[in-house]
Amino acid sequence: MTILWLLYLLQAAYAGKITWQENWMLKERCNAKGTGIWRLSNGSDWHLNSVQPPTRFAANQVNLPFAVALSRIRETFYYEPYSKVIGPEITLESPACSGVLISSRHILTAAHCLFLNKEFTCKQSLPLRKLTAQKIRVFLGSSRGATWRDNEMVEVASVHVHQDYDDVYEACRNKTSNDIAAIELKQDVRNSPICMPKGNANTPQNLVSIGYGKYKGDESLQAVVHNKIFKESAIVAYTKYKNESSIAGDSGGPLIQHLFGKHYLVGILSSFVIETVTTKQGQTVPTGEVSSRFVDVREHVDWICEKTGVCPLPEGSEDQEQPSPTASGWLLNPL
């Protein structure tokens, strides 16, 4: 039995997965500073269970250390006469997507965030170009500053796109069931990860999604309240107006449930659509609602476990004594 455990630990370390001790400790470590109180942009506080939720608002990064902004590296080459190349000059683009920290070195995001799709059309027949780990930078939510640019930057070691994600036609088919990817970082980070859901949990109401989509020039972490939620092939949340909904840059960000003093991951934002209806005259007009579609993370716990080592604990094991923090390598003073 000892030999089997040693083989497991060696395999986990080689594959970049967390160890079984680290996975066991996630129950205590996840979202160490969780709170149901959200700080609004006007300085006031709002509780998730309030009767009248606000519209889209700036969120406090201090209470959301698991928030992640994903930026792509753009290389520009300059040419002198006689074709002499100077460069490349490397710049960071504004966040194309968001993500969520689930362990000390793993992030979940939407699979489509890892593909270049600027020229994408639904009639396109060629596969989209997948981003390599070297082209991605991760910015971790923290208390360092108000925007993603002020946060700690971490390089990426590897990316894992769900094997059933269709990189060409997924968006055209309006399917989001497999639009999920895992990112492994080159180093462990101190930020507290979000808590993972149990696979048999019901879909709750009154959830919040967060992301780094640029809203009216604001590059801070933003939050959207969703209190009209349905479970279809994905989790679909409706908001009344476009300026209250998810926007570009929020993709890959988490849908969050606040429970027992902690934040739990429910979904990953895949897409959002302005809802329309067809009139008797045959015209298509907007309804005033926007639907945001989230990948249901609870349906992918086995895949997440396989790629990251972040796995559901066996029934009854949560009540057992956990291994020593020093044995697992976790830092004792997480953010």
Automatic annotation (TrEMBL):
Keywords: Disulfide bond, Hydrolase, Protease, Serine protease, Signal. Residues 40-309 form the Peptidase S1 domain. Residues 1-15 form the signal peptide. InterPro entries: CLIP_Serine_Protease (IPR051333), Peptidase_S1_PA (IPR009003), Peptidase_S1_PA_chymotrypsin (IPR043504), Peptidase_S1A (IPR001314), Trypsin_dom (IPR001254), TRYPSIN_HIS (IPR018114), TRYPSIN_SER (IPR033116). This is Peptidase S1 domain-containing protein. Gene3D superfamilies: Trypsin-like serine proteases. PROSITE patterns: TRYPSIN_DOM, TRYPSIN_HIS, TRYPSIN_SER. The keyword Phosphoprotein does not apply. It holds the Pfam family Trypsin. GO terms for molecular function: serine-type endopeptidase activity. It comes from Cylicocyclus nassatus. GO terms for biological process: proteolysis. Residues 312-335 are annotated as: Disordered.
